[in-house]
Amino acid sequence: MRRRMTVLWLIPIGLLGLAVGMGLEIRSRRVHAPSAEADRDCVQVASEFTAYPLAFLGPEFQGLPLTGCQRAVTPEKYNLDGTVREPAMDFFVFAYGSCVPAGDEGRCSPPVSVLVDPPCGPTLGEQAVKEKVRIRGEDVLVKSDGSLRIEGRNFKATIYGLAGDYQASKQKAVEVVQALHGANALAAGLKPDSNLDVGLGGNTVCR
Question: pTM to 2 decimals?
Answer without folding.
Answer: 0.79
